[in-house]
């Protein structure tokens, strides 16, 4: 990779992405294991090119990390305490890591730039987890889907950012009918119900739930799902585009 | 005023404030007449000191413009297209205005800084309009309360920012019970209802509305409002702290 040109980007402003997926009845978040040291986890993120909007930057960062275009994403909040300067101990690890990396890519000026105070704009994304092929960024060892209840301590305020994204998702799930972005194209009513239960962390009685969702008139009913026991097979649904 | 030191602030990142007030049954916004040219209006805003959080910056900017501490304010969205560089014609006016101002305060470097591309973080504030003493910023002639339905075309995307703030206010008014910040300390039920009608731009039948608001158990009933006709005098209420 060539030189990291700090002039290409807006300084002190980053985008962090809370990428939500859904599997095994659990709401999951895609997080990165950083290579700067032991046990360092963070949200995937990046910087904003001078030539792109903040929404375009978020889409680009998500495409780079998931291989997916046209991801559902929503900006939910900016985070910006003066203590959002990378904490001193972590800052030293990052500076050492960048120094040992490749001075043709990160010179002293770039290292100062990367380790300065950042305000971050938070976006959350909803993806069909089965379609994602996570791709590591620089200074990351691997990416991992983790249940939202089992997240490790992450760098900076990233746990707070996930909590705020989860709150925004709960507020928007009903109103904007965005939950279907977390499911495969075809799904049963039970799967929708279980998704809602995972997001809200409470149970919904099936009869009421089905009545409410069907009443929204946004689902198209397909054939029955083949299970072997034809008489008890559930219907498959698809979200009307 | 001394030199404007660009090192004191985060570059390319501003805060714009949608200050909502309520009077004569109308939701109003405080806007600034700029001194750079004819018919130039904008939202009050400012920059973020390296030493303060973005929330602190918003509070400081609001205090500087309204004279009020402890204003209810809420961050609602960041705005950041690459075309949020000050539009070329307006940019020229700003550059000319800054050049003619005082070169001890704005040198060439500061002029470039001020007229570069900015991402803005939007905050809305709810104030008791009667308590506000609007104070102009540099390059402003005066501030003015304007009904949200009668706003002039403003610079940049400021009309869009007001629309987004209004949407966020509607979403939060019920849920967070923040509307009382727009009223004087004591108010009648009719005044609360008229406030809600102004924010949502629709009518609420009095009986249902009163029942709903009283059911929230957040209001303290005081004496009757003296009107001369004692038997028909409405009760006064106060928000429970």
Automatic annotation (TrEMBL), chains A, B:
Return the InterPro entries for the record.
NUDIX_hydrolase-like_dom_sf, NUDIX_hydrolase_dom, WH-like_DNA-bd_sf, WH_DNA-bd_sf, WHD_NrtR
Instruction: Mention one GO molecular function.
Output: hydrolase activity
- Source organism, top-level taxon: Bacteria
Q: Where is the Nudix hydrolase domain?
A: 10-168
List UniProt keywords, sorted A-Z.
Hydrolase
Q: What is this protein called?
A: NUDIX hydrolase
Annotated organism of origin:
[Muricauda] lutisoli
